[in-house]
Amino acid sequence: MTRILISQITKLVxxxxxxxxxxxxxxxxxxxxxxxxxxxSGKVQCVAFGQMGELTVESVVEITGLVKAxxxxxxxxxxxxxxxxxxxxxxxxxxxxxxxxITLDSDGKEIGEEPxxxxxxxxxxxxxxxxxxxxxxxxxxxxxxxxxxQEFVDIETPILTxxxxxxxxxFIVPSRFQPGKFYALPQSPQQYKQLLMTAGFERYFQIARxxxxxxxxxxxxxxxxxxxxxxxFVEREDVMNTxxxxxxxxxxxxxxxxxxxxxPIFTYKQALEQFGSDKFDLRxxxxxxxxxxxxxxxxxxxxxxxxxxxxxxxxxDSKSGWTFTHNPFSSPQEKFIKDHLEGKNLDQILTTQYDLxxxxxxxxxxxxxxxxxxxxxxxxxxxxxxxxxxxxxxxHMLRAFEVGTPPHGGIALGxxxxxxxxxxxxxxxxxxxxxxxxxxxxxxxxxxxxxxxxLLDELGLEIKKQKNQK
Amino acid sequence: MTRILISQITKLVxxxxxxxxxxxxxxxxxxxxxxxxxxxSGKVQCVAFGQMGELTVESVVEITGLVKAxxxxxxxxxxxxxxxxxxxxxxxxxxxxxxxxITLDSDGKEIGEEPxxxxxxxxxxxxxxxxxxxxxxxxxxxxxxxxxxQEFVDIETPILTxxxxxxxxxFIVPSRFQPGKFYALPQSPQQYKQLLMTAGFERYFQIARxxxxxxxxxxxxxxxxxxxxxxxFVEREDVMNTxxxxxxxxxxxxxxxxxxxxxPIFTYKQALEQFGSDKFDLRxxxxxxxxxxxxxxxxxxxxxxxxxxxxxxxxxDSKSGWTFTHNPFSSPQEKFIKDHLEGKNLDQILTTQYDLxxxxxxxxxxxxxxxxxxxxxxxxxxxxxxxxxxxxxxxHMLRAFEVGTPPHGGIALGxxxxxxxxxxxxxxxxxxxxxxxxxxxxxxxxxxxxxxxxLLDELGLEIKKQKNQK
Lengths: 470, 470
Hints:
2 copies of one chain form a homodimer. The first copy, chain A, is of the alpha+beta class. Chain A contains 13 helices and 20 strands. Chain A has helices at residues 113-118, 120-123, 127-149, 190-198, 236-253, 268-275, 285-289, 312-317, 337-342, 373-382, 387-400, 415-422, 453-459; strands spanning 16-28, 32-39, 42-49, 60-69, 84-95, 153-154, 172-174, 182-184, 203-211, 223-232, 257-258, 265-267, 292-293, 295-299, 304-306, 322-324, 354-358, 361-368, 408-414, 461-463. In chain A, the strands form 5 sheets. Chain A has an 8-stranded mixed β-sheet, with helices on both faces. The first copy, chain A, has a 5-stranded mixed beta barrel with strand order 1-2-3-5-4. In chain A, strands 7-8 form a two-stranded antiparallel sheet. In chain A, strand 1 and strand 2 form a beta hairpin. In chain A, helix 3 (127-149) packs across helix 5 (236-253) and helix 3 (127-149) packs across helix 12 (415-422). Chain A is elongated and about 90 Å long. The termini of chain A are far apart. Chains A and B meet through strand 1, helix 2, helix 3, strand 6 and strand 7 of A and strand 1, helix 2, helix 3, strand 6 and strand 7 of B.
């Protein structure tokens, strides 16, 4: 007998069906037992005569039974299958559930993070989590569909790559073939996507995994996913318009509600004056209740800022006391290029950066890039780099800018964040299937962990005698 | 003046247009200069009076000119824009190309791997490479579309994870928060996808990046991309039918030709007898010329084999002299489960594994998984693991099998390989944008490389005094 989904059975009154799924609830009334059976498509009430002793809640079961119309007074209008029930003729336990280590009777938010992540395979069974993960899948596919329709090409870039200047610390990966040398995991595909513009693809995107060794916060893991996008022969407004259109189409495709059909644009200065921050929330209280998404653009950021001496990465990246505010690969705005090249009035130079904010969060950011050698060189010179240091850091980019690199620009949208907002959640972990814990442990699996000394030998590494490091 | 694509201009005879792109070829006839301009949509001939001295081949240029119909005798039927040409009224060099470090006049196959990868941003400009990378993008999107239509959910799994038993060596990533401990990069999402079945998603897929520290061969890097897929409440034939259908739809969507509308099925024994190998080529010589894809399934593999003593990973994984042939998470076929549980007749036990072969290559493989504790435990017992060792290796899986894990199975299809076959290429590197070199170097970027001693300090690591390791 082949399996049928629960969502399909209301039409099958009078027929015998075989269902497979999980025991959602069980009420043992002695002579009769009521089971709510759950599969990915829904739930249905099953009635069995006698007890079903072995059939514990959350067990996986195959149930064969007759689809019966319920009497009018027993119809449950709150579920799609409320007009019928299954009279069980036979059942078979496919996998019995022992006592559950975490409860599934709530939305899970009152349970500690560690048990939720350790038993994530159970935690994800919650209706809310199922909805969130499916929403994520659908939203990303809606984005992809729109991008393909606009002739973007999906291109994968390497996971094992070289350390780049992205403003955070790299995770490094020891090489066995060259002991003592290391790959870095990508903080973003920034340079590769620019090189794809040099390569002539003109429109690139990737749902890209980015990995940064940042200090952990309650709501930040080491990994995140971004819609990474780059376009050739464009100006700032072209990219902003394209991204706005793609975002709107995808959000509507999954039922999201937008505050503004056209995203308002604020300068950085206006944002600070009006909201005291460049991450502001344009929603009214009423809109907050309705789950509306209020997007806005912020432009005209300064290119450079004074180094924050408490930020080790900033200090390391700058040798002049000046560092970039957003992205060293950006181009300054046209009217500031002369100053930029001459290293004058650094505090006055505005970048082509555009940030997308949504409901008080930063949803993404991008810029028109430097596509000629002199501008990129000047950026690093203004940060105090010598010619040799520039060559070592971005020499391959400079060479690419000498063989026909078109004007280009792009953006990176934080997909975890966008899905979180869409789902009405307030933590990124609610929209990631297997997030890392706040202490940096991998969900379910116990990483990081010890490795065999033989492997370290092969990698040419030794673990230092432990200090009390943190 | 806004840009227009070259593919759009044949309809615009008599109009003035602005094109942007690369100088594909240039012929300087003194009084007249002929340029073939190239953008992502095609090429067109541009005619300028006088010389265009600075405009070198592969420079990026903006050309404004009049679209003119060619005289009948000058029509070039070999290109879509052959009926017109552009009479240049103005041009502006957007990025000048100096001498190219590699030639673009050939298909590139005669150029050494190192320069091709070092200057990959140029190498990718070849028509062949553009086609391959775009084919990859379209094929993967066709797969996704079909999977979504069949209610599969796209779910991302972690990059920083724990070492698992997948038959190859892990890349490891040192933890800064727990110096001396390590994450591992995923060899495949095998365990996560099974846990997603425990979580009730029923149909999962992911275009997954897998990373393995394997000995390099000419045609193998450390990274590869697979269509990773898992389904609940299925038997072997259900997965095979679903995968076959998805594959056929996606291949046809990008113009691929199939030898057989229904993929023939061979047992492992038959394959060895008939072809001397389980990776065989069913094409005739005629079909080889026509670029046909000949798929076949291979089933009924032995579950266990004697350890190959020359294979360090196999030796490490087994303590009894027996190891798995394909996947330790597979279920044996029903009729062998008793022997499996009792550890008898190990050489006789057949696994539920199915391999997909295409044109002599292995295109993918999967199985019905063990979904109850005893079967998975027995697999490791048969490999000589103690209870403690089993608990340490797969304890989290055993626990998941006690809280309602449905019967499930899946597959992993090697997408690099499939696209390579579809593109008519013989090397995986021809269908990967930035492949790793045969010596393990990252394209364009120079990884692996040295890292600053300060970072190693933070990670609690020390580089051993170099031995002559390889």
